[in-house]
Amino acid sequence: MHQPTISNESLAFSIMLVLVAIFISHKEKLSLEKDIIWSTCRAIVQLLIAGYILKYIFHVDHKALTVLLVLFICFNAAWNAKKRSKYLDKLFPTALIAITSGTFLTLLVLILTEAIAFTPMQVIPITGMIAGNAMIAVGLCFNNLGQRFNSQQQQIQEMLSLGATPKIASASIIRESIRASLIPTVDSAKTVGIVSLPGMMSGLIFAGVDPLQAVKYQIMVTFMLLATASLSTILAGYLTYVKFYNQRHQLRLDALNKNIN
């Protein structure tokens, strides 16, 4: 079967789609022109660098390089996830632990069950998908925790004054924050195949793989996204809530009120 390719000329012409977005931004006075241009240029550079790196790693096929790239992906995912926290600083270690733990555990299950082989061609794309999804979920968890602690600080202080421990006082906040963070992943799983044909499935079909085989891969991807997001957000939630309290188990009002203008 003929392998689909895209020429440099076709790729250059496709930039007209970006020009449409720039025109709409200018026409509607959205002031997004610079952001669109910058993000487009950055995406091109990053993808080209990633393409050359992956080509080299796929050719070398060395386990140590594969693990290093997996860690690099988790590191960048954690770095971006911690930026979502508006109330707490220094959450990068927490994000790294949560995302790396969820990613590695999911990869371990997939490899041990022989769903995928421990080769860079399979491990690295899968890592990108699950770490990227975990990044979004953990970032949402950080943001949701901060907002809920801020809005419910009076109730928390009342519970603490009545003798509740920080864990008991924070239980509903942790639970609701984790739940809210998982909603995008759960909703995506609900609509897969009906509303959307995800990237992996579409890519396999586009490459000439039998649709039923592509469906099996996508089902596996759906399972691992749900698992990684759940594990990562649970870890993030329980590792983060304690940072809203000081050593005396008092609510840190300085952290909650620093965003108030």
Structure, explained:
The structure is a single chain. The chain has 261 residues and is mainly alpha-helical. Helix content is 75%, strand content 0%. It contains 11 helices and no strands. The protein has helices at residues 8-13, 16-27, 33-60, 63-81, 92-112, 120-151, 153-161, 166-191, 199-206, 211-240, 253-257. Helix 6 (120-151) packs across helix 10 (211-240) and helix 9 (199-206) runs antiparallel to helix 10. The radius of gyration is 22 Å and the shape is globular. The protein starts with 7 loop residues before the first helix and ends with a helix. The mean pLDDT is 86. It holds the Pfam family UPF0014. Its main location: membrane. The chain crosses the membrane at residues 6-24, 64-79, 91-112, 124-145, 191-209, 221-242. Keywords: Membrane, Transmembrane, Transmembrane helix. This is Iron export ABC transporter permease subunit FetB.
In what range is the share of β-strand residues?
under 5%
Order of helices and strands: HHHHHHHHHHH
User: Strand tally, please?
Assistant: 0
The proportion of residues forming helix, as a percent range, comes to over 70%
Report Rg: 22 Å
Secondary structure tally, helices: 11
Q: How would the global form be characterised?
A: globular
Low-confidence stretches: none
Oligomerization state of this entry?
Answer: single chain
**Span between N and C termini?**
62 Å
Largest sheet, in brief, is: none
Average of the residue pLDDT scores: 86
Helix vs. strand class: mainly alpha
Subcellular location: Membrane
Membrane topology: Multi-pass membrane protein
Keywords: Membrane, Transmembrane, Transmembrane helix
Protein name: Iron export ABC transporter permease subunit FetB
